Amino acid sequence: MPNELWLRMGSFIIVLIVMMVWEAISPNLTSKVANYKRWSSNFFLAFCGAMTGRLLVPAGLAVVAIFADKQHFGVLNILPIPEWTAITLAVIALDCLIYWQHRVFHRVPLLWRLHRVHHADPHLDASTGLRFHPIEIALSLVIKGGAIMLLGVPVLAILIFEIVLNASAIFNHSNITLPNWLEKPLRKVIVTQAMHRIHHSQVVTETDSNFGFCLSTWDRLFGSYTHEAKAGDHGLTLGLQEYSKESDNTGIGTLLLMPFRKKPRSCAAEKTANRL
Ligand SMILES: [Zn+2]
């Protein structure tokens, strides 16, 4: 698939530019921290994550799918179903996997240390959708690789899924508000900005809900859906209370070292240990 990289990069850049222009024209909330400080940290982490992925699987996850196909390994490679049915099922199954992976990263204290780098962003915009610690990216790649083998995911499904996942992350972290007539029906199917902002609230029970990335179905199905934040969409305090100081939530070194520094007792993962 020679055009794979161009398709992924092209769609990523287009969605990022569209959402950042939208945010500039019609922002939902105003950031308390200067955007250039947040953006330099967030985009640098995105760069580190991309490099980690290239080092870990230089040719991408498609190689795992090709290997599974050649070995005739994995559920979808064994079942006698049409190719497009297998692709659709695989994309839906991978989205469900990301939902559970996200939930486990909130539940297990050691994994929360990595994921809190994403949540410590004191504001929410398209760049937050790219702000993940490189070790979280590496673990996620290993998990996805294992799932691709076990499921026998078709190569095309991986390309579709990675484009959809990246676009969803940028879209649902964006600092915009969709009009009610659009947001209400859309949220029944996919994760909207208003739905995902609740997940970035400082209220622990709200942080510990709305884990979905693309389809909103999983939160409704597995009982983790919150329809509205207590403070309302415009009254939300974003980020993590224990990282509310600017020097604690921005800066490249600060974010890279965050998982290795002692976590405060008020950490969301400790407070919500029984919610999984
Ligand atoms: Zn989260």
UniProtKB/TrEMBL annotation:
InterPro entries linked: Fatty_acid_hydroxylase, Sterol_Desaturase_Related
Keywords: Membrane, Oxidoreductase, Transmembrane, Transmembrane helix
Residues that span the membrane, as ranges: 6-22, 43-67, 79-100, 141-165
One Pfam family cited in the UniProt record for this chain: FA_hydroxylase
Single GO term (MF): oxidoreductase activity
Location(s), subcellular: Membrane
Protein name: Sterol desaturase family protein
Native organism: Paraglaciecola aquimarina
